[in-house]
Amino acid sequence: MSELSLGELPMESWMSHLPCALWDIPLYHLSIPGSHNAITYCLDMNDRSPVDLTQPDMLQKLDKYMKPLIRPFVYKWAKTQEYTIKQQLDCGVRYCDLRIAQRPNDSSTDLYFYHGVYTTLTVETVLMEIREWLDAHPKEVVILSFSHFLGLSQELHMLLLTTIRKAFTSKLCPKTEVLTLRNLWALGYQVIVSYEHNIASCHGDLWPHIPYWWANKCKAEALIEEFEHRKQHGRPGGFFVTGINLTEDLKYICTHPTESLKDLVVSTYPTLLSWVKEQTPGSRVGSLNIIAGDFITESHFVPTVVTLNEKLLKWSS
Q: Which BP terms does GO give this entry (predicted)?
């Protein structure tokens, strides 16, 4: 391998530029950058859009009666990404956390994403955008994690499945497949869909739910401590996500009234990413796989995660 750092590869096509020593390593042993709550760049700012039904009852009531006061807070803390899905993929993101919902009182069968509030873009629109991007980047592979499914009936699940299949057709990787880049390239598979619902077991193209290590903390040091504790117990066998996304509680929001989630993320990324740099992908106890964050363009997050794959080259050489 040349002396070029993997972090200096063109991020829109970093997978296709990986050295051939990594082509036969399963994707769940590589270090892969991910986007936490990937579609929050288009949250519905319209006051008519309800706060999602999973929010505490108190917040829903406040939102209903004190909308002008509460709404700006909801947006400032619910928005985890600023860039569109295509821009995120261009930046090197290869795992997307997709939380699906039907809007309440919506008579149509349209599905949306949500985090605090619902998105303006439908699931179908976003999946077609991903499809277009993949057509232009035939050697990149994305992992799409569908979860939460707020208000989805069995019929809507089937409709969502049809939408997924229509968007990705022959690019959808069946769950019997060997997940190395060499094999996926040979077969033209570019999309791995994980689906956090028991219907996944009945469908050959829906991979099971991908575990997400999430450490409900609003301080970087506490988050790192939690992950170090988890690492001692060993990594799951297949894909898994370490979410370096901090979680603010109502107390934090109320004591930082002029801040937003982005302020919190920007101020803590240096600490979090210096921890990420010490991590190693692979199969060993304590290894990491997908690392997902908020505001993925900040602080060289993506190249930092991609660079970790150099550690696999040192072992294999």
A: lipid metabolic process
Domain ranges, residue 32: 6-314
Other beta carbons less than 10 A from residue 169's beta carbon: 10
C-alpha count within 13 angstroms, C-beta hemisphere, residue 312: 28
Q: Which of 29, 115, 197, 300 is catalytic?
A: 115
197 classed as catalytic: no
In degrees and rounded to multiples of 5, residue 34 shows phi and psi of -130, 165
CATH code assigned at 206: 3.20.20.190
Indicate if 148 belongs to the active site: no
Q: What is the pLDDT of residues 190-209, one digit of tens each?
A: 999 999 999 999 999 999 99
- Catalytic residue (one of 29, 36, 148, 256): 36
Contacts of 104 (CB under 8 A, 6+ apart): 50, 53, 151
Give the Å distances, CA to CA, from 10 to 81, 92, 136, 148, 271: 21, 8, 15, 33, 25
Q: How confident is the model at residue 258 (pLDDT cuts 50, 70, 90)?
A: confident
Q: Does the residue 253 lie in any domain?
A: yes
15 burial level (CB within 10 Å; 0-12, 13-18, 19+): buried
Instruction: Please choose, from the candidates 124, 142, 121, the residue with its C-alpha nearest in 3D space to the C-alpha of residue 16.
Output: 142
Which pLDDT value is given to residue 67? 58
What angle separates helix 220-232 from helix 261-277, to the nearest 10 degrees?
40
Q: Which helix (H) or strand (E) holds 117?
A: strand 117-122
In a domain? residue 72: yes
Residue 291 contacts residue 241 (beta carbons within 8 Å): yes
Helix (H) or strand (E) holding 232, with range, is: helix 220-232
In a domain, 1, yes or no: no
Question: What single letter denotes the amino acid at residue 153?
Answer: S
Q: What is the pTM of this model?
A: 0.94
